[in-house]
Every structure is written in structure tokens, then in C-alpha cells.
Amino acid sequence: MWFGLRGNHDIYRSRPLGGVRMVLGRHPGVYEPGPLREILLEHIDPSRVATSPVQLRVGYVDLVTGRYRTAGNDDPALRDAVLASCSLPVAFPPVALRNGRELGVDGGVRSISPLLDALAALAERPPAPGGDEVWVILTHSLRRRQETQIQSWLTVARRCVSLLTDESMPEDLARVRQISDLLRSEAMPDGGRKVRLRVVHPQQRLDGPTLDFTPARLRARYEDGLRTARAGAALEV
Question: 74 near 58, Cβ under 8 Å?
């Protein structure tokens, strides 16, 4: 599917004067994600997901209540929940769910990664022989980034997207490390369980904006991921 994309227009459409119209209250987002919705309709079969033995958690934030929500395998609004989890504020409009009772946006507004959801699902299962493992696959390096020069409203918007996506991950990992330590604690009712948290990430920064879906960029990031995985560069935290 990824290699079949021809560019950004296969994921989202640009609105004429999108940024200006958003500021004026004419549109709730700079871009229109209609193409992405079509991809989800084509590739997500709710009946197959509902019967899958793999436990699924899709996180999003409901703007009505301000709460972080999750959708599971048998959620009737699964496709909408996935679209909501992709809806970065400012860039994309919120997604109506539950007959309009919820307005969903990217779960990173409250929880930058779904690691807490993974640990919660893990706690519901019996311990695996030899201990459990949680793997985190990042699309960016954990190396410290340089300070950004704020020069215009567009720079502000891009900076906000960056903070919502990749630059908050180290703090999130620190919180998850505390929870994994708690799971291992002998003070737990079941005497604790062995949990290893492993992180795989690019060895160098991948240049380019997050919302760049050009074929060359997709291929370069895919090949970088293969090199990282084959090198076995997994950081245990």
C-alpha cells in the first residue's frame, strides 16, 4: 500500500488558502483527509479485525470531554477511530464519532504513544514464560534536536506538529519506564512480573516534514527501517 502512493494527494488534499481560512474560522483544519478515509475503507475489514487474536488498541482524544479514549477490535466505529488517531490538530479537522457525541483527534494530544495502552493490555494477560517484552518502533532518532527559530505562523504550526509527534517521545518513554518498573515490583499483588521494554529507532535523523508522502521519501524511510532492524539496534530501557 505504501509503495503504491504517488504523493501527498493520495493521503490528504490541500485547501485553497487553508491556513488563512482556518484562522478565520472557515475550516477546522488546513488539509482535508478524504483520500485517507478511502484508504481506511479499502484496507480495514471490521469483521476480520473483530475476530483477530491480536489485541488492538487505537487511541484518540475526545475534544468534547477532553478525555483519552481507546477503540478495540470489535468497536463499531473502528475506522473512524483510526482516522481520528491520525488527525493532527491544526493540520486536519476532528472526526465525529458515536453519532456526533465525540470529536476525535490524535491521541498524542494527551498521550504521545500508545505504550500505556500496550502495558494495560499486557496486565490483562498471564505472564509469558521467561517474561514479557514490549517493543516500541519509532520513526525518528532519540538524539537531541537543535533549537528551532520561530519566524512565522507557519513555523509555529509546524513546530506544534513536531512537538505532538516525535519530540515528546523521550518524556513519554520515561513515564512508561516507571510503569514497567512497577509491573516488575515485588509489591504487586502477583509478586511482580518480568517485563522488558525495547526501543527501535533510526540511527540518524530522517530529514523532511512528517506529512511528506512522496515516493522517494517513503522508500528512503522504509530502507532505513530495514537497516535498523537487521542491525538489531534495540535499546533496552
Answer: no
For residue 149, count CB atoms less than 10 angstroms from its CB and return exposed for 0-12, middle for 13-18, buried for 19 or more. exposed
Task: Give the largest CA-CA distance in the chain.
Answer: 59
Q: How far apart are CA 107 and CA 113, in angstroms?
A: 8
- pTM of the prediction? 0.76
Backbone angles phi, psi at 86, to 5 degrees: -95, -5
- Distance, in Å, from the CA atom of 201 to the CA atom of 69, rounded to the nearest integer, reads 26
Q: Which residue has the cell 529507532?
A: 201
CA distances from 173 to 8, 65, 169, 234 (A): 30, 26, 6, 14
User: Is-contact 86 36, C-beta < 8 A?
Assistant: yes
Better-predicted residue by pLDDT, 119 or 158: 119
